[in-house]
Specification:
- The chain has seven helices and 16 strands.
- It has one domain: Spore Coat Polysaccharide Biosynthesis Protein SpsA, Chain A.
- It is an alpha/beta fold.
- The N and C termini lie far apart (40 Å).
């Protein structure tokens, strides 16, 4: 069995280069949106830190200076742990593949690299995702989650107009989507898709190519997972965090 890599040695790339959003009365990068009193970048960094990760590289874009300020505060929280965090402006309009290309070239000798987005609150077991990645000798591994929807599905009788029931939870269990929290083997990626550096969107161009080659794997996460795209999402995540802390 292949030995598990030490998480403290694995660099974590956080994609934080999207457009500014107005969720709290002013235009901010998502990295600076506060959920439960903490900026989203701090949430994501703290999540990885809980699993032993210590090296962080943030790909910023719009609102770069504010992201730098938030990262400095995140750095203070990790002081004394061999912690490092670097923020690089990768452009306002760059796709995810371009941002990852800029990040990956900073770690030329690292085989395994983790990456995720800055706008997710979850309880994903990142070590379990890494275990799947190692066990499958994968080129890339993603975290698969149930497709969330704000609407509760109805059970209906197709021969009448009668509703048979209303689902308790608005979750589509039969449809999985990528929930972020990726691991990529840099060397295998270069071998499998030599031109991936020319791609613009990693999810739409690079990952389908890996899937076609049977090099892309997934770890199923059945726990909490909430992307932050609206004020409603913020409220839902804050409710979850409050319940976890109580």
């Amino acid at each position: 069995m292949t030995d598990m890599p030490v998480t403290a040695n694995i660099p974590v790339v956080i994609l934080a280069g999207g457009d500014l959003v107005d969720l709290q009365g002013m235009q901010k990068p998502k990295a600076a949106i506060e959920v439960g009193g903490r900026p989203m970048l701090v949430h994501v960094v703290d999540h990885y830190r809980a699993f032993g990760f210590r090296r962080f590289f943030v790909c910023s874009g719009s609102g770069h200076e504010e992201v730098v300020t938030v990262a400095k505060n995140a750095g203070k929280r990790g002081a004394g742990e061999g912690f490092s965090i670097e923020v690089v402006d990768t452009g306002e309009s760059a796709g995810t593949a371009r941002r990852l290309r800029e990040a990956f070239r900073r770690f030329p000798s690292d085989g395994t690299i983790a990456f995720s987005y800055v706008d997710i609150v979850s309880n994903v077991d990142i070590t379990a995702v890494l275990e799947t990645h190692v066990a499958e000798t994968a080129t890339a591994t993603l975290t698969a989650v149930n497709l969330p929807t704000r609407f509760k599905p109805l059970g209906v009788n197709h021969f009448t107009a009668r509703v048979l029931g209303v689902a308790n939870k608005p979750i589509t269990k039969d449809t999985l989507v990528s929930g972020g929290f990726y691991f990529v083997d840099h060397t295998r990626l270069a071998e499998a898709v030599p031109d991936w550096h020319a791609h613009e969107n990693f999810e739409q161009e690079t990952l389908p190519t890996l899937a076609a080659q049977a090099r892309l794997f997934y770890h199923k996460h059945d726990g909490y997972w909430q992307p932050i795209d609206s004020q409603r999402d913020v409220r839902m995540a804050e409710k979850y965090l409050a319940e976890e802390q109580s």
